[in-house]
Design brief:
alpha/beta; FAD/NAD(P)-binding domain; 8-stranded mixed sheet; about 30% helix; binds ligand NA7
């Protein structure tokens, strides 16, 4: 027997939790969550060293003044357990838990055009009929596991970093192999190395990383933020990455080498990747400007890593700094000075298969007890593509997006009425601070739903023409930034065979928000309401 509700929210991560709170004020909502607990990214990614790379005074909710005044972050950059604790606190404080069904994976959704209702099915057998669906499924939630053969033959243990066991993993005395050196791999490796008998890192592309400078929260800093929260939250939304910073006026080419060095040194120690990439006004848009910063970062690597050959293998040379997300680390490069750490270049000799005893590359076999795949995500589209979503006329979303996602403003895709995405494809996603921009997007969706109801309508969709105009905007802004010169999850080139071009909008959050608001203000331009 089907049950009914107004709105189904998929995912109880940070955006999903806020969606329950915001939409639950005036609607019946049911949230379906695959995990056993709340927190999304910060529920799943419990690998050692998992930590946010944006200051927590910013990377937190702003919707409730009492919450932001009363909550205390113990460190500048919060570790996963603190973020998970915060998500749980919010779920309890705003009484959200009663609306969440845990351990419930959505498997199929079908739109009934005769009633303008979605039928949502789960692996547990739920069948829910609702008017709207809000997919808060996360941009980085579907793990990417490259299809190396003979995985089942390996007699040791294999873990993906985003499916880390709650009880942890004991690395003591073990031969550990880690594949992947992105933000995740760089955070996990130094902690694993400190415990393991030996750690072998399999690196395909070296990452640029800067020191996090994490430290206990200073009371004065916290007081200052709490005294100014309301203003700062507003200001954040006017910044490219929804994170506070001063905008530089100066080109890197307009200063002496000494001035350049001094500015970059200061930015390097600023604890913010955004601040380094925006230390001058042309680093993210001019390849020559970017090269100067990339060389500055490579010099840092060479100054830390004692073995010159290892240092050179760790130096990224094939793409611009900031082209992939700049990593933030706690002792990553210094880790290579340990005797129990070996770096293997799998760009030179790729991994070909698992074996009974470990991993084989084209030129050697590595005996291992535990293999960690820090190989990232089928990002942005993966979570939705893994659900069978049938829109009008039986069109299936995964088929529609086979050559890449098409959306209007990242919030809807044509043929799937009343289905809204938070941090969907072609939104700024991780290019902007995701809790604050997630709140903004949930409010935007709530306003659209409320507008529909106010006007006595039951259906909102978008059109292929509107999608084309958004694709043109996404494409146009992507031509300006150095992201186009790097293969990453931003442009779907992190996974062999994945199609789709730019998955995220790199024109900055303020422009994104302005275009979203303008569409609604101009009588829902690009949307079709009925
Ligand atoms: P990333 O940044 O996508 O990194 C994944 C890493 O795994 C990266 O070093 C990849 O090398 C490596 N990888 C992926 N597939 C392979 C294969 N087939 N062989 C060898 N190495 C491979 O994911 P993260 O989880 O680190 O970070 C994701 C986001 O989380 C990050 O951007 C932040 O926003 C937070 P590659 O570079 O593709 O050569």
């Amino acid at each position: 027997m089907a049950e009914t509700t107004d709105i189904v929210i998929i995912g109880a991560g940070f955006s999903g939790l806020y969606a329950i709170h915001r939409l639950g004020r005036e609607h019946d909502v049911i949230c379906l969550e695959a995990g056993e607990g709340v927190g999304g990214t910060w529920y799943w990614n419990r690998y050692p060293g998992a930590r946010v790379d944006i200051e927590s005074v910013e990377y937190s909710y702003g919707f409730d003044e009492a919450l932001q005044q009363e909550w205390t972050w113990p460190e500048f950059f919060s570790a996963q357990p603190d973020l998970e604790r915060y998500a749980n606190h919010v779920a309890d404080r705003f009484d959200l838990r009663r609306r969440i069904r845990f351990s419930t994976t959505v498997t199929q959704m079908t739109f009934d055009a005769s009633t303008d209702r979605w039928h949502v099915h789960t692996a547990r057998g739920d069948h829910i009929v609702c008017r709207h669906v809000v997919a808060a499924t996360g941009a980085l939630s579907a793990p990417n596991t490259p299809p190396w053969p003979d995985r089942d033959k390996f007699r040791g243990e294999i873990y993906h970093t985003t499916e880390w066991p709650r009880e942890g993993i004991d690395f003591t005395g073990k031969r550990v192999g880690q594949i992947g050196t992105g933000s995740t791999g760089i955070q996990a490796a130094p902690i694993i190395a400190a415990q393991a008998g030996h750690l072998t890192i399999f690196q395909r592309t070296p990452a640029f990383s800067m020191p996090s400078g994490n430290r206990p929260m200073e009371q004065e800093h916290e007081r200052d933020w709490k005294a100014n929260y309301a203003d700062r939250r507003k200001q954040m939304l006017t910044m490219y990455g929804a994170s506070l910073m001063t905008r530089p006026e100066r080109s890197i080419h307009d200063c002496t080498p000494e001035e350049r060095h001094e500015t970059l040194e200061k930015a390097w120690n600023s604890k913010s990747a955004f601040k380094l990439m925006l230390a001058f006004n042309d680093i993210m848009i001019d390849r020559a400007a970017n090269d100067l910063v990339a060389e500055f970062a490579r010099e840092k690597i060479r100054s830390i890593v004692k073995d010159p050959q290892v240092a050179e293998t760790l130096c990224p040379k094939t793409y611009p700094i900031g082209g992939k997300r700049l990593c933030i680390d706690n002792g990553y490069y210094d880790m290579y000075n340990r005797d129990n750490v070996t770096l293997v270049d799998v760009a030179a000799a790729p991994i070909v298969a698992f074996t009974e005893n470990g991993l084989r590359t084209t030129d050697a076999e590595y005996p291992l007890d535990i293999i960690i795949t820090a190989t990232g995500f089928d990002a942005v589209t993966g979570a939705l593509a893994r659900i069978r979503i049938e829109g009008v006329d039986g069109i299936v979303m995964a088929d529609k997006w086979a050559d890449g996602p098409t959306t209007y403003l990242g919030v809807m895709t044509a043929g799937f009425p009343n289905l809204f995405m938070v941090h969907g494809p072609q939104t700024p996603a991780a290019q902007a601070q995701m809790i604050t921009t997630g709140e903004w997007q949930v409010n935007y969706i709530a306003n659209i739903i409320e507008g529909l109801e106010r006007d006595g309508l039951t259906r909102i969709d978008t059109t292929p023409t509107a999608e084309q105009s958004w694709a043109a905007e996404v494409d146009a802004v992507s031509q300006y930034t150095v992201h186009r010169f790097a293969d990453s999850w931003y442009n779907a080139r992190n996974i062999e065979g994945k199609k789709g071009g730019f998955m995220i909008y790199v024109g900055g959050f303020p422009r994104f928000a302005e275009l979203c608001e303008a569409a609604v203000e101009q009588d829902y331009a690009g949307f079709v309401r009925a």
